[in-house]
Amino acid sequence: MKRTKLDIIHDMLKAIEQKGGKIIPTHLLYKSNLSHQRMKLYLEELKGKGLITEAEYKNKMHYELTDNGRKFLQNFKQVKEFTEAFGLG
Amino acid sequence: MVQVEISSPTWFFGLDGSFEVIAAVIAIVVAFAAWKIWRMTKERSYGWVCLSFLFIFIGFAARGIADLVIEKVITCAPAIREALPAVPGVSRTALVFLGGYLGNIIFTLAAYIMLVGLSYKVEEKAMILLLFLLTLPILVLSSSYFLSYYWMSTVLLGAITYAYYKQCMQTKRKKGRAVTLAFGFLALAQMQFIVSALNVLTPLSRDILYVTAHSTQILGFLMILFVFVRTMMK
Fold it and tell me: Tens digits of per-residue pLDDT, B106-159?
């Protein structure tokens, strides 16, 4: 079944969480199963919404999960249910 | 002099207000949940859901309080009647009635228009404003605010119901069915209000239809609450 935008955001944040809260762009590209261009667009959106930040770690650029991002993951099931019930997806 | 005619069986006075207050409480609960999700995701659609249900809360709270106050004024307490502000040419009862019912009309219509925009995924927000600007003059210029309001609500809620129904059929998801049904009940209630307001039935039939309209409406809101509780329990 085609992933909704919410599912894609969840998958990306989950990938970052599974890597201990920090991930390099290449690993995120593989884990998120998106094209490079689409991933860039989603990353901009996630940064804009405050769900992730950019940080340098061991001389490499990483994407880091924020508290808001963690909250989103914790409440994802409820958000998804609400979205589907009210037809917002 | 503004004359107020309340079409409701005497025994139902107070109950109609209570139903409206319950509907308002359900609406504010959904609005709060939508607001929390909006804060988390910053997605505009959740903001619109929050605003729509907030307007529904304001609309039904205004009408519910008006109905409850009127019930007290009519049945019990001259003291309450005297405590209300006096406006020349308008009875105190009429003042409460107008404030509550006009508030209900304006806010709920605005909410339903926003929900139409959401359910049809209207990108251009100017369309929503256009809808609102079209409906308000029709209301103001009509000879019966209530009939116009109930008719417009029927159309808007019917459109929302159809949108949700189409979505359910396309996505084959069971979850949307309860919300479809809820809005269907709300649309049906408005139709019942229209018929109960027309002078085509006997007074007894009008009273019964008024009661069933309120019951259908609260059923719609209770279905929304059911969906909400199921969502939050995940």
Answer: 999 999 999 999 999 888 888 888 888 888 788 877 777 788 899 999 999 999
Q: Does A77 touch chain B (CB under 8 A)?
A: yes
CA distance to partner chain A, nearest, from residue B7 (Å): 34
Report the pLDDT value the prediction gives residue B2, as an integer from 0 to 100: 43
Tokens of B43: 């997605």
Could you tell me the pTM of the whole model?
A: 0.85
**Rounded to whole angstroms, how far apart are CA atoms A54 and A64?**
6
- Element containing residue B54 per DSSP (H, E): helix B44-75
- In this prediction, residues A43-59 reach a mean pLDDT of 91
Q: Show which of residues 3-32 on chain A sit within 8 Å of chain B, judged by CB atoms.
A: 9
Average pLDDT, chain B: 85
Chain A residues whose beta carbon lies within 8 Å of the beta carbon of residue B228: 82, 85
Q: Do A87 and B176 touch (CB under 8 A)?
A: yes
Structure tokens at B118: 């959401």
Beta bridge partners of A65: A52
Cβ pair A88:B49 closer than 8 A: yes
Inter-chain touch A85–B178, beta carbons under 8 Å: yes
Q: Which helix (H) or strand (E) holds B154?
A: helix B145-171
Torsion of CA B213, B215, B217, B220, to 10 degrees: -140
| CB distance A49 to A79 below 8 Å | no
